[in-house]
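Practice set, problem 2.
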Amino acid sequence: MTPLDLFSLKGRVAVVTGASSGIGQHLARALSKADAKVVAIARRAEPLQALSDECAAAPLSVDLANISDWDNLAEQIAAPFGPPQIILNAAGVNLREPAGDITKDSWDLTLHLNLSVPFFLARALLSGMNGWGRIINFASLQSQRAFPNSMAYGASKGGVAQLTRAMAEAWSHQGITTNAIAPGFFPTELTGPVFADTEKAARNASQTAIGRNGRLDDLTGPAIFLCSNASAYVTGQVLYIDGGFTAK
């Protein structure tokens, strides 16, 4: 095996949630270009179909917030290409509510989609991995920093960091590693309001060590590394891809 072979995803099946837009869509496209067979999951069927037409990903329109039968979902995911060995849990929600406006429903939705879904989906797919697997969760700058109007989101993403360590402890001995990517400031639908404010976007860029906000292509290499044999001895880690924001 050559050094480049370590990064090959050829023959691997990957499932990517939140694949209709933003980071999930970008990484579904990137994994497909890296020769993985991709099942792309999101609520919205139309952008999923456009992604499928572009890169041959198998679209699966599902509202993950309302799943009650995870075994049935696992069967649907495995139908196009077989059971996946790679899971990218990119689906998420940030309602940006001040603490006084948070309701039980909005709190429960945020923690369910951001924290519970990655666990229950991974557990449902675990038996199909057969001794080799890669689970990539999505943490956040708010896994360790508090931001305004994001209490529920921050709580969920703090939980994702610990969930990642706990999943690694439980399953790494089976050859199934679990790590998390914590993106910095990237332009997505979730961060649209921030990037629409040019002053705020510039302020965020100035807080990084590199001096700019992220571009979606900045996530491609780290994600492929965590999905491949190159990361075989890396598990339980949160990789901050933030231009050095958390280093300052």
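Problem 2, part (b): a different protein.
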Amino acid sequence: MKLLGRLTSINVRKAMWTARLIGLDLDREDWGAGFRSPQEPEYLALNPNGLIPVLIDGDFALWESNSICRYLAAKAGATALLPAEPQARATVEQWMDWQAGELNNSWRVAFMALVRGQPATPEAVAASVAGWNRHMRMLDQQLDKTGAYVCGERFTLADIVLGLSAQRWKNAPIERVELLAVEAWLLQLSERPGFAEFVGNGMP
């Protein structure tokens, strides 16, 4: 299997970290800013959105990073990361979908302005920072309730995707609220194989 996308992308890194944790040697090819453009016809034939990453498994191409993580776990039979029991699996996928939708949308303006240098008004940035902190507080409350990982006592795909998001929040040049459960959880995650390479590597 091959993953198309540059390693500086948080979405590429979540797939690479998943692969490392399930013991999969996933080849990676650089696409995106600074490399080959995902707007090239060859790439658009795989992903019409023109976004990274794309996973290629034989003649099968899959886009959307959280779907790629699910696919890798399911193909490897990694039920510890993606449970087979319907309610447990739905809870993991619920938090993954929340990460991709609600949480990502909250930080987009602030991150793109403060880190990527895209234009935005101070008011828009301030509103985005407030929303980002509010959503991270929701994550903190969940972790405080479980006392361990996002979905309970077991480390799952939800911890992988949200771990990368939480690390981005922690490194962002913003005023952050104090979230003790998130800090303790990130410390736990840092002991996992691949964390230093794909999460705690200083990349935004």
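Answer key, part (b): The chain has two domains: 2-76, 86-198. Helices lie at 10-21, 41-44, 65-76, 86-114, 122-146, 157-171, 180-189, 195-198.
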